[in-house]
Amino acid sequence: MPADTSRLSFRDLDEGDLPALRAILQDPDAMVAYEGPFDDEEVRTWLVRQQDRYRTGLGLRAVVLRESGEMIGQCGLTIQHIAGADVLEVGYLFRPSAWHRGYATEAASAYLAEGFSTRDVDEIHAQVRDINIASMNVAIRLGMTVRTRFVKEYRGVTMPHLDFAITRDRFLELAEA
Ligand SMILES: CC(C)(COP(=O)(O)OP(=O)(O)OC[C@H]1O[C@@H](n2cnc3c(N)ncnc32)[C@H](O)[C@@H]1OP(=O)(O)O)[C@@H](O)C(=O)NCCC(=O)NCCS
């Protein structure tokens, strides 16, 4: 788990986060790239999947505003199958009322640092659906570049995606700048 950033802290998601998770995963604007809001069962399945991933040290965690203790989003590292390979990926989803404040980039940046310091990987990726411009802009703010385009089947829909990534060397170079 990353250390606190200037505005954010991180912790495991639990059952008590279901209302905050619904504020993200059942919001039509937040879920455009996921082909629409989840139902209650899909939200619960999502939570259980993250909790399963915690056993390996991975998974999306709750992102909490230090000032208020409010859970405003999710961010973390997972293994994703991208363009034929299993890679370390940073994911980020925030409720709409927390957008446009730099929280996603602040959280994801902390997870890149965590990933490069705890995992023996040369690169960390971010898979972004081709319609998800806000997410692409986060990847770009993180210093990532596009590696390839690939297609993914999700919820019965064929979705073109871009594979963004940043190398360890580039991450360290940016962190020192
Ligand atoms: C993707 C997502 C997390 C991006 O959130 P975001 O708030 O746009 O991204 P950031 O946290 O990087 O915020 C950047 C914005 O905050 C602004 N900002 C304000 N205060 C800031 C600060 N102190 N520091 C940095 N940026 C700040 C920036 O100018 C920028 O503004 P803009 O969006 O108007 O250009 C959000 O759209 C989301 O949760 N979408 C739904 C889920 C999703 O699709 N996730 C990605 C799946 S691949």
UniProtKB/TrEMBL annotation:
InterPro entries xref list: Acyl_CoA_acyltransferase, GNAT_dom, N-acetyltransferase
Residues spanning the signal sequence: none
Stored SUPFAM superfamilies: Acyl-CoA N-acyltransferases (Nat) (SSF55729)
GO terms of molecular function: acyltransferase activity, transferring groups other than amino-acyl groups
Domain of life: Bacteria
Keywords: Transferase
Domain called N-acetyltransferase: residue spans: 8-169
Entry-linked Pfam families: Acetyltransf_3
Descriptive protein name: N-acetyltransferase
Organism: Microbacterium bovistercoris
